[in-house]
Design a protein that fits this description.
The complex is a heterodimer of chains A (337) and B (323).
Chain A (H helix, E strand, L loop, with lengths): L10 E14 L2 E14 L3 E5 L6 H8 L8 E10 L2 E2 L5 H7 L4 E4 L3 H4 L6 H12 L4 H14 L5 H4 L9 H12 L6 E5 L7 H18 L2 E6 L2 H7 L2 E6 L2 E7 H6 L4 H8 L52 E4 L2 E3 L11
Helix pairs in contact in A: 4-5, 5-7, 7-8
Chain B lengths: L1 H28 L4 H8 L5 H11 L5 H13 L5 E2 L4 E2 H36 L4 H15 L2 H15 L17 H39 L2 H8 L4 H13 L1 H11 L7 H6 L5 H10 L3 H29 L8
Antiparallel strand pairs in B: 1-2
Classes of the chains: A alpha/beta (337), B mainly alpha (323).
Chain lengths: 337, 323
């Protein structure tokens, strides 16, 4: 049933059977169901899906930051350099956070503490993970701001988050995540709250840093444009399941899962003669399943135009090659178009 | 910054003047004056004596003349002379103030520190036993009349378990050594301070619990955890500084009342504070003392507001200027 994960030499992160349950008024609700993926050195993995599909929860689960109660990680292993993060003590996982596994968030406006200066928040992160004096930490903080291309870092470091623009704040968040040159950076919708030009700058910055440090990135987004820009490989998620995995090319040009196909169809294509605007964008009919009332069978079944009687039972993940899989019965008997 | 403070002080002076004028007319609008009260105490007297007394106290002049004279005095730093106590109001206040300030300020500090800690720990496990305990304690604190609580505490800790003195601020005879005298005063203040603190504490634990619960759900708390900070740092640095704003507001309001806010507690524990002085003066129509206490209360309010604004600015840099 599960992926046969081929552990490559350079795999930095291996996620196996990661499951998260929430306790909603006594009912056990499965938010994340047996998610598997691997992440290579210097690779960017995109996780795409609509709101509530479990992509942010995946990120929080990797850092063991699932809000508890009501949530809990019910199953799974997360191997970072062959150490299972799920079995570490609270203190050990605390030392991993922000050091080897860093995270940046969707809302740069609210992700920085409004009542402390940028410098204070950077320095405290540095001091938490490195044995430095306050003066040296401050110097390093200024260097980090220079690395994320913030002009006049000596001044900026004394400022409070509300004195900075959204793009600037996200750069600070990135600087904060880079303090210990992490092996993996999890970026949870890092540009959703920013406008398009700033988005492009942030992506360029991330790519530049990645080229320098060989850092791996997990990019979580609902925006296929961002995925196309950044990702090497893509995971498509739906209702807590990984429904498709492949390289960017495979997902973009030959999607197998009807959900992925629908997602790509609903992307806006801008044509030079603006004819793209004349007809409405095709949408995926129906809405996300109610996780409280899961029906048996394929979670996408009720919305799927190609559903058959077979879809009343849960499809397994069909492996179609190296790190290429799809969770759909269509892949079973070669009916894939 | 400095300019803003000076501006606030100037505004405060204008405000205090207005308060004095208003209080003055209000008092004079009430029936009876100190002479009436004196004669009533003495079992009546003849109108001639009353007129002579009024003339000697300056009460025979028109109200507005009295007011102008009084204002002139106040601006020269003289709060007038008590008819009843036969003492200057300034001396009278200075004699009663230390007891009141020791009581209210130590109760306030206790309540802010313990109440906030209660609130914080309750917010960490909002459905836990401690959180429920804090909720019940707050309700109890809100619902209990202060004089009743004071009397129960007196009964239990001064009578059944005679650990603390039941009334007054000093023992008779006083201990000889200076350290002994200080300890004696502290010993006397324990029960009234705790009575007052328990009531204050209710508000602080409730407010900080709610505020902390709110802040703990913020994005920047998630960031702080994701950076690998210890839970202690997350709670007491990142969350508390944000969650403390409502506590500062409330403490500011209560700081404004330290001057005269403990009348009931002072009465129950027979402490020679400002409260009983004010009460006595009202009964005896001793206007200069009443006006003096009200003047002190108004000044404290204005000073407390300036302090609160300064703390706001320190706590939250987004608050720009204090005007």
């Amino acid at each position: 049933m599960d992926d046969s994960l081929e552990i490559k030499e350079d795999a930095v992160l291996q996620v196996m059977n990661l499951s998260v349950d929430f306790d909603v008024k006594g009912n056990n609700v499965s938010i994340l169901s047996k998610v598997n993926f691997g992440l290579g050195l210097g690779e960017t993995l995109g996780i795409v899906g609509e709101s509530g599909c479990g992509k942010s929860m995946t990120a929080l689960a990797l850092l063991r930051m699932v809000p508890s109660p009501p949530g809990k990680i019910s199953e799974g292993e997360v191997l970072l350099n062959n150490v299972d993060l799920m079995t570490l003590s609270k203190k050990e996982i605390k030392n991993i956070r922000g050091k080897e596994l860093s995270m940046i968030f969707q809302e740069p406006m609210t992700s920085l503490n409004p009542v402390f200066t940028v410098g204070n928040q950077l320095v405290e992160t540095i001091l938490e993970h490195k044995d430095l004096s306050r003066v040296d930490a401050l110097k390093e903080a200024i260097e980090l701001l220079r690395l994320v291309q913030i002009p006049a870092p000596e001044q900026r470091i004394k400022e409070y988050p509300h004195q900075l623009s959204g793009g600037m704040r996200q750069r600070i968040m990135i600087a904060m995540a880079l303090v210990c040159q992490p092996k993996v950076l999890i970026a949870d919708e890092p540009t959703t709250a920013l406008d398009v030009t700033v988005q492009a700058q942030i992506f360029d910055l991330l790519k530049e840093i990645q080229a320098k440090t060989k850092m791996s990135i997990i990019l979580i987004t609902h925006d296929f444009g961002a995925i196309s820009e950044m990702a090497d490989r893509v995971i498509v998620m739906y209702a807590g399941y990984k429904v498709e995995e492949g390289t960017l090319d495979e997902i973009r040009n030959s999607p197998l899962h009807p959900y992925t196909q629908g997602l790509l169809r609903s992307m806006l294509v801008i044509k030079p003669d603006s004819s793209g605007f004349k007809k409405p964008l095709p949408e995926i009919p129906g809405s996300v399943p109610d996780l409280l009332n899961r029906q048996p069978g394929c979670p996408f079944g009720p919305r799927c135009s190609q559903a058959t009687i077979k879809c009343r039972s849960m499809p397994p993940n069909f492996n179609l090659g190296f790190k290429r899989s799809v969770k759909c019965w269509l892949a079973d008997n070669g009916r894939v178009e | 910054m400095k300019q803003a403070i000076i501006q606030r002080i100037f505004l405060g002076i204008v405000m205090i003047t207005a308060v004095i004028i208003l209080n003055f007319f209000l008092l004079h609008a009430a029936p009876g004056d100190v002479v009436d009260a004196m004669l009533a105490e003495g079992g009546g007297g003849d109108p001639e004596l009353a007129a002579r007394l009024r003339a000697s106290y300056g009460l025979d002049e028109a109200t507005h003349i009295q007011l102008i004279k009084y204002l002139g005095q106040v601006f020269r730093g003289d709060l007038g002379y008590s008819f009843y106590y036969d003492q200057s109001v300034t001396d009278l206040l200075l004699g009663h103030l230390p007891t009141t300030l020791m009581l209210t300020i130590s109760a306030l500090i206790l309540a802010v520190v313990i109440g906030t800690l209660f609130g914080v720990y309750a917010a960490l496990k909002p459905k836990g036993i401690f959180s429920n305990f804090v909720t019940v304690l707050s309700l109890f604190g809100y619902a209990t009349p202060v004089f009743w609580l004071g009397m129960i505490i007196l009964l239990v800790f001064a009578l059944y378990l005679p650990l603390f003195p039941a009334f007054g601020i000093r023992s008779l005879p006083e201990p000889e050594h200076a350290v002994g005298r200080i300890l004696d005063i502290i010993h006397h203040l324990v029960l009234p301070t705790f009575t007052l603190a328990i009531l204050y504490l209710a508000s602080y634990s409730r407010i900080s619990r709610a505020s902390m619960l709110d802040v703990l759900g913020s994005d920047y708390i998630r960031t702080a955890r994701a950076k690998g900070l210890s839970e202690t740092k997350v709670i007491f640095k990142h969350a508390l500084k944000n969650a403390a704003m409502p506590v500062v507001t409330l403490a500011g309001l209560q700081l404004a009342q330290v001057f005269s806010g403990a009348i009931l507690v002072e009465t129950v524990f027979s402490l020679p504070g400002v409260g009983p002085l004010l009460y006595e003066s009202i009964v005896r129509r001793d206007f200069p003392v009443i006006l003096g206490v009200l003047f002190g209360a108004a000044s404290t309010t204005i000073i407390a507001n300036i302090i609160t604004d300064l703390i706001y600015k320190y706590m939250d840099p987004r608050i720009q200027s204090i005007t």
